[in-house]
Design brief:
Blueprint lengths: L2 E4 L3 H12 L7 E4 L7 H6 L2 E3 L2 H6 L3 E4 L6 H8 L9 E4 L6 H5 L8 E5 L9 E7 L4 H12 L2 E5 L5 H28 L4 H22 L3 H6 L7 H11 L2 H18 L1
Parallel strand pairs: 1-2, 1-4, 2-3, 4-5, 5-6, 7-8
Antiparallel strand pairs: 6-7
């Protein structure tokens, strides 16, 4: 299956790096960007790097639309001639643009999916939420093959796609900011930056894997390390006094409100 990423920014690059790492033949991939020199490293790996969106769409079976939301209509109009015959699939990773909006710019027979991966696709650790409107099992299978290659997938209702963007895609940034704060705190209590980073990164990784493997509620694991009058509960309570959980929830809601403005 030949694949194109139309508008290869940070997310598109992460997807392509993950796919190549997963064993996809880069010669089957076309990536577009106005400034093709920014994708020179992908070109060196064998990816066809061009600025012509229509050519990329014509030569591909599965087309991933990864442009900015304000630009999606113009790009769909640009690549419309590529959909003259059946057989192509469109997957949009454009935030805030619904399937019915995408379909109004395409022939009725074109299968359209929405997907929201995150930049951890770069290391095959993305969580990709996928939605569609009654597309065939065969088309769904082909889309899942692509995104399962760069991590895990979850099928969701399209009504939750904006929420998935906030929790899964924006969530990468939230976790990074938490890690950054942990490292800064580690430096303040005595570690050098490199050692603090190693400790925090492995701790965060271990916490996530522990929840995945044990399938426990986070509070259950918290209870295991909060002893009476201990240092863990003292730290947690101090964080909550300053609104730790509340601030995070408010941040998620603010991101959601911003998406819904578009």
């Amino acid at each position: 299956m030949k694949l194109a990423v139309i508008g290869t920014g940070n997310l598109g690059r992460s997807l392509l790096m993950g796919l190549i790492d997963a064993g996809v033949n880069p010669k089957l991939i076309t990536a577009t960007r106005r400034n093709t020199s920014a994708l020179a490293d992908l070109g060196e790996k064998g990816v066809s790097v061009i600025s012509d969106n229509l050519t990329a769409a014509k030569r591909s079976d599965l087309i991933i639309l990864a442009v900015k939301p304000y630009n999606y209509k113009a790009v769909l109009e640009e690549i419309l001639p590529a959909f003259g015959a059946k057989g192509k699939i469109l997957v949009s990773v454009v935030s805030g643009v619904e399937i019915f909006e995408l379909k109004t710019h395409l022939p009725e027979f074109v299968p359209v999916f929405r997907a929201m991966p995150n930049t951890a696709a770069d290391i095959n650790q993305s969580l990709t939420c996928i939605s569609h409107s009654s597309e065939s099992k065969e088309h769904l299978k082909r889309v899942l093959e692509v995104f399962n290659a760069v991590g895990k997938t979850v099928e969701i209702s399209e009504s939750l796609m904006n929420s998935a963007t906030v929790l899964g895609a924006c969530g990468i940034a939230y976790v990074m900011r938490f890690i950054r704060a942990m490292v800064q705190g580690g430096i303040e209590i005595g570690f050098d930056a490199e050692t603090a980073s190693k400790i925090v990164q492995q701790t965060v990784k271990g916490a996530a894997i522990l929840l995945q493997e044990r399938n426990n509620h986070p509070e259950s694991e918290i209870d295991k390390v909060t002893t009476p009058k201990g240092c863990t509960i003292a730290g947690l309570n101090e964080m909550e006094h300053y609104g730790f959980s509340s601030a995070l929830i408010k941040g998620l809601k603010a991101s959601m409100e911003q998406i819904e403005k578009k």
